[in-house]
Amino acid sequence: MKKKLRQSQDKPQTKIRVQNRRAALVPLFAQGKTVSEAQKIINADGHKASRALVGFDLQALAREAPQKVEEARQEAGEQLRGLRQLINNAQELGLKDQVGLLLQVHDRYSRLLGLDAPTKSVSATFNGDVDPATLIGYRKFVSVTSNMGRETLDRVYQFAAKLNGAPAPRVINPPATSELWEDEPKQLTEGQ
Asked: How much is the pTM?
C-alpha cells in the first residue's frame, strides 16, 4: 500500500500541481500573508490545499530559496559578462556612441537583480491592525507608546521607575495545626 501511495505522489501531474501551488503562494507570502490567509486565497483560486500543506510548501520554499537566488545570480552574472564583452567590443562593432547607454543598462540590470546588494538580509512583518486592548506585556507597551515623542517617553520611563519598587518579602508562617502535631497517637482497632 505504501509503495502505491509513493508512486501516486511521483506522478508528473502531482509535481506540476505542487509547482503551480507554490508559484501562487510566493507572491502571497511576499505580501506578508499568514499561512491561513494564503490557504484561503489559493483555495478560492482553485488550488486545493489544507493549511498544513500550505505550511509545508512555505517550508519547502524557504529551503529552496537560497539555491534559486544563487542560480539567478549566476545567470545574471553570465548575462552581464556578455553585456560587458559587447561594451568592450563596441568600438569594433561601430557602437561607440551607445557605450554610455549600454553601461546604464548594465548598472540598472545589476541593481534590479541585486548583484551589487548585500547577500544577506533580514525582513520582518508587523501587523498594525491589532487591537491594543488584546495585547499584553511588551507588545502592549510598544503599541501604546508608538506615537509618543522622546520627552513624553522619558516621563513614562521616570513614572515606571517609581512604580517598579522592590517586591515586599513574603512571610510564610507555620500552620496553626497539623496532623503531625497531635499529642495522642492513634490506636489501631480491629480490622484496620
From this structure: 0.40
